[in-house]
Amino acid sequence: MNSHERSSLAVHPAAGTTRSSDMQVFLKEFLRAPVRTASVVPSSPALAERMIAPLLGRSQVDRPPVVVELGPGTGAFTAALQAAAPGMRYLGVEVNPAMADHLAARFPGIDLLRGPASELSDALSQRGLPAVDLVVSGLPWQAFAGQAGTELVSAIAASLAPSGAYTQFTYTWTRWAPPGRRQHRTLRQHFGRVDLSSTVWANLPPAVVYTATRPLPVDDPAAAAG
């Protein structure tokens, strides 16, 4: 099976997988690396629905949507994406080995890059994927720290189709922290529009979603202004 075939597979959850097993993986990884994991439980269906909303509102086109998921964890957003667009061309990027193993078992045949999000551009190029319609990110704020974080947001913007969208969630209690404010500024430097959702109270902890659209060219004055 070549990379093109792999990336166009519909994602099917393995039988017997439960939210309980997802929670066990999340808790174990949180205890092992709390800063990198950032939560003790997977995201809720309510948050997943908000994160994939741009895909649900996507206009009809003559090709399957191309979706990238950064930090899919145990697959809360992956499952929602599969239900919304079973014919999508999907690429997941997961650096945590335990979560990558869990994800691969839950969704047999998934196209999964086991590595950091900084490898996104190369991964898309190697697979010959066209411009991305939606980037869904479950990465913690730590992933966007410093220059590496700015470069990652720039790479996400560059990977998107002009009509594409990038969604990133944060917990309400971290939104006003310095990393959260920095991330919001970075989004505004690379996208012409950044919308903030209402609070998703059904998530634990409650969360909000940034939806960034209208990716700016890398040489756009607004992007350079920083």
Automatic annotation (TrEMBL):
Record bears the keyword Metal-binding: no
Gene Ontology terms: biological process: methylation
UniProt entry keywords in alphabetical sequence: Methyltransferase, Transferase
Gene3D superfamilies: Vaccinia Virus protein VP39
GO molecular function, one term: methyltransferase activity
Keyword Methyltransferase: yes
InterPro entries hit by this protein: Methyltransf_12, SAM-dependent_MTases_sf
Domain Methyltransferase type: 68-164
UniProt name for this protein: Phospholipid N-methyltransferase
